[in-house]
Write a structure and sequence with these properties.
249 residues; alpha/beta; Rossmann fold; 7-stranded parallel sheet; 17% strand; SDR_fam
Amino acid sequence: MSAEARPLAVVTGGARGIGEAIVAELISAGHRVVVVDINAKAIARASDSDAARAGLLIPLALSITDRAAVEDALAGLAEQHGPVSALVNNAGMTLSGSFLDQTDEDWDRIVDVNLKGTFVVSQVAARQMVAEGGGSIVNISSVSAHGVRTGPPAYAAAKAGVEGLSRLMAVQLGEHGIRVNTLVVGTTATPWLLSRKSEEELAKMRQSTLTGQLGDPGDVAGVAVFLCSPAAKHITGQLISVSGGQWMP
């Protein structure tokens, strides 16, 4: 299949970690993928990949909280490559801090990226999907939304907000043929995590799962790509735990 004939997917935060694994799986499944990331070095690395040279990966440096930039970028993509048929809202961020020392500034920044960013990109992409008669949106949440892990309250609140937003989106977009599902992700062995945790800390994290092991980025990617596929055409409005049993709905 030529690159131009492939359906277009967008993955935010797609140049690193879980997002990078999702991008690779989507390409393997027959999509062209727009990799949205705010990290310039990660975008440069994606731009130099074999997939980019083959026209299967389209790098896009973008802040997902900048509505005007998102609207301009997705309109340009639709004009050049066709409308978005699948969106994975993977971009997110967190900071250290507990409930007693969370600052207003950190709260605003975390909620802005994790919750507002998901809303902005979803709304802009969904308008294209409505015009095309349907699509799939997969949002990424965290077991932190369910009190499983400690951390800054803004992150837990933002991810809980993503879950509520996802259910509402599924209800209101279903009549347009758009499916919306959410992955509740547990502790995952991304390069970022592995570079910052000691072996003792990692061992404790493994013990927090029923499987006795950390998740792999590919574990999340496989489920996300399934939800973007025709095989999942009757699945919408769901919270799906990819956490090794850290959280069970």
